[in-house]
C-alpha cells in the first residue's frame, strides 16, 4: 500500500470563463484518506514479455536500456490536401499504484481500446518514507513533500505498472516531486536553477529506486530515464515559464502545464506548448479545464459530495469531453488534451467518465489516442507552414473550402527516415 502520509493538496489557479471558478490541477496523493475503489474494467491481458533485445543495466540496475520502445505509431508528414488525424491525449498526474489499483485498471482499458497514454510520475512515489531526507526541495526543508512519500510495497507496485506501461507504448513523463503550490515556496516562485535541481532529483529517484527501496532483486525499468523523459506537467499548473527555461536545457521536447483552447499547439521557449484545454460543461454557461479535478471543483468543491449527484456529475464530465472531442473531430482537428488523477473523488464518477470517453472516441475513424511524445513526434515531421496554417483555425472551425483545398498546393516532402503511415496498428500492445 502507499504510505499513509499522502494527503490531498488543492492548488487554485485563476482560470475562469464567464466569471466561473475553475481550479487548477491540484495533486492528490495515491492513498488519500477515505478513497474508495474506482471504476472496474476490462479483462484483456497485456504482453508477458518485453522487447526482444539485450538488456543493458544502467547505474544500480534500477533502469536499463532494452531497445526501442515497442507499440508506437510512426509519424509521417501530411500529404498535400490530407486531413490531419484526430489526436486525443489522456494523461495522468502523479501516476502511482495504490490499493485502488487505478493505474493497472487504466492500462487494461488502454489495451482494450487501442489507446496509449502519458503517465506523469511524481518521483517521490519511488522514495520510501525512511529515505525522505534524500529529497532537498527548493525553498523547503530537507525531507518535506506535500504529497508524502511511499513504502516498499507501494514502490514495488508502482514500478510494476511503470514497467508494463512503457512496454505497451505508454509514455513516462514527470510531475516532479513534492507538489508544492501557492505563494509560500510553491513551484510558481521557483527560479530556473531551482527547477533544474527539482528535475535532477526527480530523475535520481527513478534511476536509484532499487538502492533507495532495498528491492535489489526486482527487475529494472526497461528504459533510460535520461532519454525517456521529454515532457512534464507542473504541480497546480504553476511555474511553467521558469520550468520550461530549465527543461529546454535538459532535452525536454514539450510541456503540458498551460491553459489554452482547442487549437493546434505552437512552440514556446523551444518546447511544444501543449496545454490543458477549456471544454464545455453541459448545462452551464461556462467552460472549465479538461481535467477531473476541475469538474469536481465546479460541481461539488469537495471530493466527497452528495452521493445522489455522483452519476449526474460523471455524466456531465463525460458529455463535456465528448462535446469537446466532436468540435475538434468535425472542426479544426486540434489535439484534444485530457488530464486526470488516479483518484475516486465523488465515488469514482470521474474515473467512469474517463473510461466511457476512451471507449467512445478511441475506436473512431482517423482517431489516434496516443501519448504526448507521439504527438510531438508527429508535429516535428510536419511542414511548419502547414502547422501555421492549421493554427489559424479557431475552436471547432473546419476549413470552409474543405481540407483538400485548405492544405493543397504545396510541395510534398519526403518523410523522415524509417517513417510510415500513421495508420492504427492492428495490435499495439
From TrEMBL:
Residues 1-28 form the signal peptide. Keywords: Signal. Residues 26-51 are annotated as: Disordered. PANTHER family: CHITIN DEACETYLASE-LIKE 4 (PTHR45985:SF3), PTHR45985. This is Secreted protein.
Amino acid at each position: 500500500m502507499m504510505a499513509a502520509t499522502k494527503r490531498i493538496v488543492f492548488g487554485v489557479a485563476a482560470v475562469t470563463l464567464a466569471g466561473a471558478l475553475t481550479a487548477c490541477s491540484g495533486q492528490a496523493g495515491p492513498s488519500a484518506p477515505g478513497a474508495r475503489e474506482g471504476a472496474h474494467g476490462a479483462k484483456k491481458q497485456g504482453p508477458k514479455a518485453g522487447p526482444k533485445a539485450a538488456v543493458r543495466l544502467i547505474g544500480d540496475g534500477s533502469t536499463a536500456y532494452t531497445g526501442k520502445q515497442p507499440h508506437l505509431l510512426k509519424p509521417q508528414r501530411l500529404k498535400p490536401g490530407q486531413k490531419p488525424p484526430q489526436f486525443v491525449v489522456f494523461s495522468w498526474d502523479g501516476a502511482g499504484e495504490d490499493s485502488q489499483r487505478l493505474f493497472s485498471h487504466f492500462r487494461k482499458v488502454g489495451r482494450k481500446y487501442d489507446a496509449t497514454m502519458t503517465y506523469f510520475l511524481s518521483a517521490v512515489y519511488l522514495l520510501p518514507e525512511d529515505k525522505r531526507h534524500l529529497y532537498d526541495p527548493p525553498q523547503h526543508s530537507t525531507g518535506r513533500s506535500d504529497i508524502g512519500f511511499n513504502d516498499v510495497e507501494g514502490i514495488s507496485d508502482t514500478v510494476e505498472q511503470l514497467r508494463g506501461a512503457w512496454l505497451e507504448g505508454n509514455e513516462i513523463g514527470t510531475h516532479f516531486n513534492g507538489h508544492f503550490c501557492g505563494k509560500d515556496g510553491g513551484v510558481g516562485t521557483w527560479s530556473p536553477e531551482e527547477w533544474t535541481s527539482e528535475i535532477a532529483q526527480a530523475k535520481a529517484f527513478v534511476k536509484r529506486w532499487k538502492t533507495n527501496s532495498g528491492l535489489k532483486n526486482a527487475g529494472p525499468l526497461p528504459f533510460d530515464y535520461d532519454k525517456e523523459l521529454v515532457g512534464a506537467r507542473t504541480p497546480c499548473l504553476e511555474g511553467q515559464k521558469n520550468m520550461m527555461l530549465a527543461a529546454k536545457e535538459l532535452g525536454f521536447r514539450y510541456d503540458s502545464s498551460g491553459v489554452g483552447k482547442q487549437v493546434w499547439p505552437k512552440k514556446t521557449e523551444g518546447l511544444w506548448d501543449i496545454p490543458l484545454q477549456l471544454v464545455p460543461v453541459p448545462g452551464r454557461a461556462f467552460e472549465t479545464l479538461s481535467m477531473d479535478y476541475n469538474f469536481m471543483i465546479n460541481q461539488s468543491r469537495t471530493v466527497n459530495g452528495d452521493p445522489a449527484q455522483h452519476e449526474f456529475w460523471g455524466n456531465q464530465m463525460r458529455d463535456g469531453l465528448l462535446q469537446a472531442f466532436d468540435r475538434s473531430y468535425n472542426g479544426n482537428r486540434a489535439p484534444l488534451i485530457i488530464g486526470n488523477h488516479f483518484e475516486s473523488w465523488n465515488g469514482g464518477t470521474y474515473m467512469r467518465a474517463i473510461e466511457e470517453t476512451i471507449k467512445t472516441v478511441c475506436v473512431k475513424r482517423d482517431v489516434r489516442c496516443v501519448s504526448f511524445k507521439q504527438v510531438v513526434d508527429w508535429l516535428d515531421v510536419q511542414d511548419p507552414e502547414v502547422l501555421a496554417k492549421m493554427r489559424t483555425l479557431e475552436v471547432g472551425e473546419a476549413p470552409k473550402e474543405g481540407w483538400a483545398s485548405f492544405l493543397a498546393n504545396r510541395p510534398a516532402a519526403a518523410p523522415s527516415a524509417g517513417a510510415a503511415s500513421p495508420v492504427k496498428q492492428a495490435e499495439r500492445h
